[in-house]
Amino acid sequence: MVVAHMWFDNGIVEVDVSENQALMKGAPERIIERCSTIYIDGEDLEMNDYWRTAFEHAYLELGNVGERVLGFCDLRLPGKEYPYGYSFDTDEVNFPITNLRFLGLMGMIDPPKASVPDVIMKCRSAGIKVIMVTGDHPITSKAIARTVGIISKGSETAEDIAERLDISLELVDSNNAKACVIHGNDLRAKSPAEIDALLRDYPEIVFARTSPQQKAIIVEACQRQGDIVTMIGNSVHDLPALQQADVGIVIAWGITTILCIEFMNIMGAISLAYEKVETDIMKRRPRDPKHDRLVNKRPALITSSLIGIIQVATGLFAYFLIIIENGFSPSHLFDLRKSWESKDVNNSYGQEWVRISPFI
């Protein structure tokens, strides 16, 4: 029978056997670390350098074609120490999780939709930088990124350059690499300043084997660059990054569903849903939130200077035109207050000007 159900399993199958058996599946590099033997042709052999090398080659071969790879291992548990009905605890583990027997690898094909490359191309034509953040292995992530165009044709990572020139990775000039694939372990060791430099230096970036917290860190780093960040997620593990991003897009896919409980966000989403479609919006670069505001220096300058001057000039012209039609030149208006109350006023042409009261 299966003795424990870990969080990443999706089912429990009970088999009538005389002894318990611990089964484990997950990231192959994590699985192989816990194994001391390997199951080959019905025999348990010692896990030595030969089999580890064979494991690496098989892992690379499956990952390079974009397959998601899982590793499997097991361990027969002695019936005396772990009898039927033994209470197994997966929080405070009370059964062996090392010295396991490696069973093999399985590659799963989850091809991206055919429309994804076109979407990536449209985003780039609109000036949008697309970054891939995934929990897959770096090899698989890079293969998928090349398939959909996140790593464009002709772009190389430092590892690709080292392989092409047959040199060590330390000898590669990082300035020659236009793309990079960052493992979650490497990301954990980087400071915020190093992450910022990474985002500035590489136009094409893939983050692999990332945790939910690291996804939020990546979003925050992009925002420090002054960018408006949109995060696409499909599970509850993406919630930290979705909440941190300026725009969060949730895909209803899988066994978990994300619910929005913030009323103001829902109102904004409804407003966007009913907004008329702009056919050329993906041909325009996103606005700069620091400079391209509704009212900034440029429209304010145009309004106060150009349009303001025209309005002032038009108003003064109309004023002086009415004054001249009534017999007064503009020069006559200066110091006019002294004679304003006089009953005997001559206009600019020497004619007597008579005030007509509207009350008479």
Describe this structure in words.
It is a multi-pass membrane protein. The chain crosses the membrane at residues 250-274, 300-324. Residues 257-330 form the Cation-transporting P-type ATPase C-terminal domain. This protein is an alpha/beta fold and 360 residues long. The protein has 3 domains: 21-108, Calcium-transporting ATPase, cytoplasmic domain N; 116-283, HAD superfamily/HAD-like (Rossmann fold); 297-353, no CATH class. 36% of the residues lie in helices and 16% in strands. The protein is built from 12 helices and 12 strands. It has helices spanning 28-33, 49-64, 116-125, 138-148, 158-165, 184-188, 192-201, 212-224, 239-244, 263-273, 297-325, 337-340; strands spanning 21-26, 35-40, 43-46, 68-76, 100-108, 131-133, 179-183, 204-208, 230-233, 247-250, 345-346, 352-353. The strands form 4 sheets. It has a 5-stranded mixed sheet. Strands 6-8-7 form a 3-stranded parallel sheet. Helix 9 links the parallel strand 9 and strand 10. Helix 2 runs parallel beside helix 4 and helix 7 (192-201) packs across helix 8 (212-224). 18% of the residues are buried. Mean pLDDT is 83; it is low at 5-10.
Q: What is the H-and-E element order?
A: EHEEHEEHEHHEHHEHEHEHHHEE
Poorly predicted runs of 5 or more residues: 5-10
Count of helix runs: 12
Count of structural domains:
3
Q: Output the structural class.
A: alpha/beta
Count of strand segments: 12
What does the radius of gyration come to? 37 Å
The CATH superfamily of the largest domain is identified as HAD superfamily/HAD-like
CATH architecture of the largest domain: 3-Layer(aba) Sandwich
CATH top level of the largest domain?
Alpha Beta
Task: Please state the average pLDDT score.
Answer: 83
Query: Biggest β-sheet, characterized?
Result: 5 strands, mixed
Distance between the termini: 114 Å
Q: Helix amount, in percent?
A: 25-40%
- Which topology of the largest domain does CATH recognise? Rossmann fold
Q: For the largest beta sheet, what order do the strands appear in spatially?
A: 1-4-5-2-3
Share of residues in strands: 15-25%
Question: What general outline do the C-alpha atoms trace?
Answer: elongated
Organism: Rotaria sordida
Protein name: Cation-transporting P-type ATPase C-terminal domain-containing protein
Subcellular location: Cell membrane
GO molecular function: nucleotide binding; P-type sodium:potassium-exchanging transporter activity
